[in-house]
Amino acid sequence: MDSELFRIVASAQSSYVSDHDLPAIATELLRSLLELTEAGYGFVARIDSADPTHVHLLSSVRLRPGRAPEVARGHEAMALSEGGVLARAIESRAPRVTEAGRDSGPVRGLPSGAPHIANAVVLPFPSAAKPVGLMLLANRRGSWSAADLAQLGPAIDTCASLFSADATQKKLHEREQLHRAVVDAVPDGVLTLDGAGAVVSANPAARELLGRPDLVGHGLVDLLGPGGDVVAAALAKVDSDGEVPAGSLVVSMRRGTEALPIEVRLRSAGTDGTLIAVLRDLTEHDRLLRERARVRTESDRMKSEFVSIVSHELRTPLTAIRGSLGLLDGGAVGALEPPQRDLLGLALANTERLVQLVNDILDLDRLTRAGAQLRPVQMPAIEPVSMAVDSVSTLLESTGTELKLDLAPGLLVHADKDRLVQVLVSLIGNAVKFGGAESTVTIVGRSADGGALLGVRDQGPGLPGDGRQLLFEPFAQGDSSDSRPKGGIGLGLAICRSIIEQHGGWIDVAAQPDRGSFFHFLLPAPRRSTR
User: Fold this and answer.
1) pTM for the whole thing?
2) Does 270 share its domain with 322?
3) What does the pLDDT look like over 1-22, one tens digit per residue?
């Protein structure tokens, strides 16, 4: 029996390696074991991995003298009866025998069409976690001995190995199908290339993009045509030193009379030289870029028209109104009563505010549209700082603000003096406005990164941690509510950023709630001539 059993086991293992048809292999193995043990009926079932109280029939065989074997294959689901031989065998992970005089429990939960069971042995297929299947051999002419069960051990171990391998194979197949479905759904072309750059597999998008249904076996460079030289150079580099380009390659592929811009990305897919090539048609991307540029140009044109309207339709009458109010305030039409002078002062102040608003809008437009006409020179930092302080001296006195200078000795800056003074005046004005009466404003200057770092520190309410960079956007406000206590429309910092960036520098703010703010900017050193 041992030699015959060895032949049966070896045949089952060889068959699985060649075709992986587990139901067919289980049928032949079961038939051979029934003949070897002189049993008349048996079946092989897979235990449900999610519910071990159910099994799924793979195959059943019935042998009767003078007749061909009756074979049933399928996936019939069977519920195991609690306390039955099948359930006990699975629970104990050990063979169970039932026959007259030695009953380990009734045989219930059999496949449809099963004969009457006079005796049977139930053999679970062990695995590391739990049994993966079972075999029933029934209606033997003799009884089942412990030696018989021991001899069946190799067959049971083989079945367990085949079932476990088949489960693993199914999982791998499911993952492969999922991966293929994902790749097929990708709008970009995805190719697998061998070490020679020939296509091993391609998704539908690649076949459509390259205009051929039969890509497998063709070289990617040949498929791209004359424009594929840059890809050929990249593949040659991969072949010579194994270095796969990290970025993307753009080629021009001709399809009929049309030239298509194609982006090609190469990625390594293993140690055997396999590559993944991702192809993207940039035609739509280029169209969107052109459309975006057109929209931006149209937006700039509309903005310029708006600024022109502001310049001509607002600035001129505001200037006339300001002049008329100035004449009234100067007594050109006679002396004014105190209530009249108060109202006139309010009107004049708001007119000045509107004029400044118009000037800021025009200034920001000039800076962002055409760029500032800068005349940078090297100078001591104290010069523009002193000019800025003189410009806001009246504001400092009226609010009782103390101004401190903390400039590094001999600090030099390279900048357009007038524009730098404009930035400092704006930052100092904000510091006074938000610092409150009788606060302290400090102007700081240090050497940094080969240039000069200047900043203005206040004792105001500070800023929340999020959205600080939005302060430098046009019309942005740290407090945008209708009840904010400070005026302004949010153009000053936008103008400051534009001026500093025109100098090649940057501007930022360091602030925390209730701890003040430090607006600072870097002016880089002048570039040295390479002559």
Assistant:
1) 0.45
2) no
3) 567 777 888 888 888 777 778 8
